[in-house]
Amino acid sequence: MQPIFIIIVYLLQIYAFILLASIVFSWLVAFNIVSRRNPMVASVGDVLYRLTEPVLAPIRRRLPDFGNLDLSPIVVFLVIWLLQMEIVQYVIPNVP
Q1: What keywords appear on the UniProt entry (predicted)?
Q2: Which sequence spans correspond to the domains of the chain?
């Protein structure tokens, strides 16, 4: 059972990196550093959007409106961190 929880922790960490890449990519597009007219940039943006939007959209609906400030990635990072801490602290040491 312990290897399954280790895999879950690693998958959560990979998703956190994907979320961070999505945030950086959105900043690069917003500040016109990269152009979405480039097919490679558009495909990377589409992949990042498809991977992160199913998690971020429900959180955005529940958070109050802060104008242009999107706090949903912070909430997802906190949830990922809490899940990892729960798995590491309570599940893995108690497995015989």
Answers
A1: Membrane, Transmembrane, Transmembrane helix
A2: 2-91
